[in-house]
Q: What sequence folds into this?
């Protein structure tokens, strides 16, 4: 199937809801309207209003209700309409979702997915063009995932839904419909916490995630006659794949880390620190950050 990211995510939700009746969707305008970006379009007609739930404009309530559902045996996938609206729910995410496994000594888990668009690129206003991933990768007890293309969006989302612990699933809105690629109709998973080398190289490692992987691959192609660029897609930001990063930079001796968010205290800074800690003597030049 030749799908864009919106279609791939919709397919993942549709297939997981068919396979597992405990998967529930909830969020603002996700039912009748199919969400602002139409990611959930058509699912209300298939699964009904008891499993595709339109909620009030109350992000704390959406996530709080989802936590309650999760600890009682359901698998809620809740949507935050835009990433800038996620902060009213941050108390629920930090104080409860991330801690319940430890707080209950393993008696309860929270199989919850919080979906949200992320980033700029669509000429939107404040609250609609932000990159808040660093707020969440710092929190123990949750995973943070950012797909970069339709294929891994489907596989990563299925893995997130099946994970027993909470996952923040950020979807780069800039590439929701930017391109299509072949996506298998049958179900498949991509492991959380694993990076992927999209292009082998020898001279420098270009590390990124989300919408900017497309730019990384374009840059590598443009420079192919001058330098050999290895492109590493993180896929999961928390926990990120330490071994994949270190193995790659030890091979190339140089690294450039790309993020859309502001530079201060970002994931790129953390990766730079990691490289300096574990591969400093292998480096031919300082790590560069593009942010």
A:
């Amino acid at each position: 199937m030749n799908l864009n990211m919106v279609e791939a995510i919709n397919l993942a939700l549709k297939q997981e809801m068919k396979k597992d009746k405990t998967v529930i969707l909830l969020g603002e305008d996700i039912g009748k309207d199919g969400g602002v970006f139409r990611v959930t379009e058509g699912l209300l007609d298939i699964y009904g209003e008891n499993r595709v739930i339109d909620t009030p404009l109350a992000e704390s309530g959406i996530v709080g209700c989802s936590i309650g559902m999760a600890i009682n045996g359901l698998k809620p996938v809740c949507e935050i309409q835009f990433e800038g609206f996620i902060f009213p729910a941050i108390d629920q995410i930090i104080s409860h979702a991330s801690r319940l496994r430890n707080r209950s000594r393993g008696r309860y888990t929270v199989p919850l997915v919080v979906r949200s668009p992320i980033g700029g690129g669509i000429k939107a206003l404040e609250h609609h063009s932000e990159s808040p991933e660093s707020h969440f990768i710092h929190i123990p007890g949750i995973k943070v995932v950012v797909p970069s293309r339709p294929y891994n969006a489907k596989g990563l989302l299925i893995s997130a839904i099946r994970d027993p612990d909470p996952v923040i699933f950020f979807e780069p809105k800039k590439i929701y419909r930017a391109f299509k690629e072949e996506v298998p109709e049958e179900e498949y998973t991509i492991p959380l916490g694993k990076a992927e080398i999209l292009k082998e190289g020898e001279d420098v490692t270009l590390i990124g995630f989300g919408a900017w992987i497309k730019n990384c691959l374009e840059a590598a192609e443009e420079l192919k006659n001058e330098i050999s660029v290895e492109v590493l897609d993180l896929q999961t930001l928390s926990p990120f794949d330490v071994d994949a990063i270190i193995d790659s930079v030890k091979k190339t001796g140089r690294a450039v880390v790309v993020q859309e968010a502001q530079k201060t205290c970002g994931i790129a800074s953390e990766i730079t620190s990691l490289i300096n800690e574990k591969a400093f003597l292998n480096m031919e030049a300082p790590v560069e950050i593009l942010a």
